[in-house]
Predict the structure.
Amino acid sequence: MILPPATVGVLGGGQLGRFFVLAAREHGYRTWVLDPDPASPAGAAAHRHVVAAYDDSGALDEVGAACAAVTTEFENVPAPALDRLATVTVVRPGSTSVQVCQDRIAEKAFLREREIPHVPYAVVDGDTDAAELPADLFPGILKVARLGYDGRGQVSVAGPGDLAAAHAELGGAPAVLEARLSLDVELSVVLARDAAGPVAVFPPAENRHVGGILDVSIVPARVDAALTEQAVATAVEVATALDHVGTVAVEFFVSGGRLMVNEIAPRPHNSGHATIDACTASQFDQQLRALCGLPLGEVRAHSASVMVNLLGDLWGPEGDPREPDWAALLAVPGAHLHLYGKAEARPGRKMGHATVVAGDLDVALARADAVRTAVGLAADLGG
Ligand SMILES: Nc1ncnc2c1ncn2[C@@H]1O[C@H](COP(=O)(O)OP(=O)(O)O)[C@@H](O)[C@H]1O
Ligand SMILES: [Mg+2]
């Protein structure tokens, strides 16, 4: 067990890393962040921010020497960096889990091999003949295999005749073509798994995306118990098969009543942010506990919650930005504001989130609508 006041590190300096750092500091650990951006949100909160690339061997050796354990906040860390660190310190999750999740082709193959229900797809590369692809993949979405996020690196493909142009738009990089499904609902399951195997699963979240970016997460999800149980069981199966140690999130589609895995994040997840304010341990507490070999916390939701993402669009037009009305937001009962300390508000950029908690979901939805009104979003949750 790695106990406070040991030093723990995180690769990546975004908001997920920042919340990890805050959780670790709260527990009495010293914190290091490796991120090339001198203005990274996590770097600003850590005891030490090493400003260097993820494949900078000198920087990795410095982090490895200083930190008793290192985790990651995003899946695009090069696997050799994790392996290099693992020769000198504890690294969780390990490179295997991260490698599968950072490449959509590897991720889909992982699901297919284990017969875990997933979205129909085909790998698209330079040799793909569009005419030979199954007709049920059209209309579809072409997704770049690596480095896509928040709906970026995705192009709609109406029919086989459009595939070549769509692939060119992605620079010809390896990609997967997925059937565009009509979605009943989207769900996600965040869980933590420790090195000895036990898991602690947060209640599934119901997620609404707008333009490919998460907009709202609602807990408890408004789906029947059988679907919830299936999502939990599938997420546990995925985490176990990956031998993932730490916090992991599985995103699901429900289409025509059927549950399918969309993608896997080998780290805490935006749809798990409500765990900070609505659960007895947060997804970041759990990441820390799993990393350090501490007992996992109880993950009971003590409140219903609605998490509303605050994107850069709320700051008004570029060139003439103004802060949203935080006082109005904070006047809503049960509202918790989390801003990530990003200097520049760009459209689609995740600047912060608000979580509203309440004793029951109808009240939480009404309060979330009040939060949305306060910052200029449509009050469309029907609360
Ligand atoms: N095959 C699909 N059918 C319908 N909607 C999809 C499909 N793929 C993605 N989407 C929508 O776009 C969102 C983002 O896509 P996703 O594959 O999760 O990429 P990202 O890595 O950007 O989160 C999804 O949550 C969903 O709302
Ligand atoms: Mg996604």
Notes: The mean pLDDT is 96.
